Amino acid sequence: MRKEIRRIQELMEAADYVTDAPVATSVHLATILRKPLLIEGHAGVGKTEVAKVMARMLGATLIRLQCYEGLDAAMALYEWNYQKQLLHIKLEEGSGTPTEQREAAIFSEPFLLKRPLLQAITQETSPVLLVDEIDRSDEEFEAFLLEIFSEWQITIPEIGTIKAAHPPHVILTSNRNRELSDALRRRCLYLWVDYPSFDKEVRIVERKVPGVNARLAREIARFMESLRAVRLSKVPGVAETLDWARALTALHADHLDAELVAETLGCVLKDADDVKRFRAEVASAGIGKFIPVEG
Amino acid sequence: MAERDLQGAVVRFAGLLRRHGLPVTLGEVTDAARALGHLDLSDRHEVFLGLRAVLVSRVEEIPTFERCFNAFWRAAPADDPVMRGLVAPRDDRGPEPAPVETPAVAGQRREGVALETWRADEDGDAAGEPLGVPSVSDRDALTTQDFSTFTAEQLDEIARLTIQIARRLARRASRRRRPAKRRGLVDLRRTFRANLTRGEIIDLRRRRRKQKKVRLVLLCDVSGSMDLYSRFLLQFLYALQNVFGRVETFTFATRLTRVTEHLRGRPYRQVLRRLVDVRDWSGGTRIGASLAEFNRQWGYLLDRRTIVIVLSDGWDTGDVDVLATELLQIRRRAARLIWLNPLLGNPSYEPLTRGMAAALPFLDWFAAAHNLESLRALAGALRL
Hints:
heterodimer; A: 295 residues; 3 domains; 14% strand; B: 384 residues; alpha/beta; Rossmann fold; 6-stranded mixed sheet; two-stranded antiparallel ribbon
């Protein structure tokens, strides 16, 4: 293993992120090749975490662009602060300042609202730009992003072209709510984050939930592993595992039993049909499928 | 292995991936070669992960990539001083991994079969409907005649007619404009610009989100007699595809197959053949299980701009409860759920099969798709 990759793993572990070789290798190549990294995976497997940890690791600022339906270029790049401009014009009325000067004043930096993309290219050092849940944005926005990624420059008619002196490291995440274009996919490095293995999940719980009982951590991980094999409409992710582990720890539990599971199931299953399906599974296969039975 | 050899190997590896359906670009090949310079070449797993990050761009490609990687990058003999970890084959093509049975591959071998089945349909129906088959020139009659009653020669003509009608509909749809209404968010930028000369804001400019194209997901039953209708529906919708943002196609009998890639950009004759090629011949129809498979693997294709069309006669040999659950899932996520049942074209038909009865409560639109006239009516329902 390259020492750079091992170092990334160590740094990530030090930043409380339980990692593995695929994540570390992808992050290593993304920083070296200077390519955006597209991370896909189910909800709650820690995709966004990668960007946060990467920023901490590189000592860079994290700039986050949260995508949603209807997000457009203006909201991602920059906007003029119209209210402030109007106010300025009103205040300047009758002051006798020449028109050109007044116009130059209102189209200057203090009146510019920098949105995440503009922020990302005007930093002193390369920041980490997190484009979160890109699958929620529209196709048009995706095309627009591609354009930005290829040039790293933005033209503001009133000010001129701003080119990034230090292009950001880019991480994109997607929950696969919408199919992304091939153009975007092919431009990025790709990382698929699956649900963690049993061992990894135990490590995550132990790392993230202080004071968790070691036996409980293992039983929770085993429970989640079996639960994810049941056909659910909302399969619980690591976020749910951690919520649950925290709740159980707060209840001073040191192991799982049927009653405790029934009482706290809401931490893990968040869909009425799934709860029903889980109960049916327990009724037919027995609770022993999920938790070790005493004796 | 010298660096030049390594680069050559990467190029050949990319070729192998392309032959197995991964659309690897030139840029990615360059990146892959660069990436190797930053990886520990004696660590085979690390090389695997690194190349995967660069050359794969969706999770579905990973199994193919893995197979190709294992076949191409053999482990090097331990005494090789330079490349302890891996070695690429020197011959130009590289050993091919075990052939993947993709419908595309199967298609090339089974063309003959496709033509035979086309004819088989004719034989079956010729016995039942010997009379009253109108001449091809009689177009009005053709548009109301059930597809299954045509002869093989007529089917070709009908196919052409289907496409003609679809094209006409497509042109009409693209000319239609929605009148702008006085709604939507105030567009500050344009309002400000428009009122610059007045000193006061008088005229408000608004913006509305651009109307987006509707996407389609087709789930076509290709078991038994359904296959013929599926072909016509597909032909019709593919001729219409410019009207839609995206058309995803799946076929099912006992299991689900995604055929979108195999249908893309091909002449309709080939499209028809491919559809037959992907048919599984095991008999029976498990609609519920096929839809479950769709939801699990392809559920992300559904959103509020997507219309789902199921074409089937509703004869489900599987569990009817599963069918109901899965339809509910689709119904929740998609904009509209349409079920086409060619049997509905028969006046005496009533949707009494257990599968069909279970499905009815979840449908937004239930219609036949048994002749050209009904396909035309369908086009009207494909708007949001």
